[in-house]
Amino acid sequence: MCLMVMRRSMSEAIYGVLEYENARQFLEYVKEKFVESKKAETGSLITNFTNMQYDGNGNVCEQIMKMIDVVSKLKPLDVLISDSFLVHLALNSLPSQFGN
């Protein structure tokens, strides 16, 4: 019954073409995919964070706020960035004209 309700409430693209015998199997499949997605998101955010460079557009405060935003997105993914590391990367993201 639960499986039928889930199948009717989501599109075929989400549910997929795979057949499941019960709701538990389907939920286990979704859980596995979520973990893979979480790892990909974590990797993408870390890469984005470590490669951020100030390009001269906008002001420095906006650059730092973007970096803080990425750090806040990493927290729920169990990746903690210390304030001192954030400051270090923020200073390194600035061009030499800022005297870092």
UniProtKB/TrEMBL annotation:
<protein>
    <submittedName>
        <fullName>UBN2 domain-containing protein</fullName>
    </submittedName>
</protein>
<dbReference type="Pfam" id="PF14223">
    <property type="entry name" value="Retrotran_gag_2"/>
</dbReference>
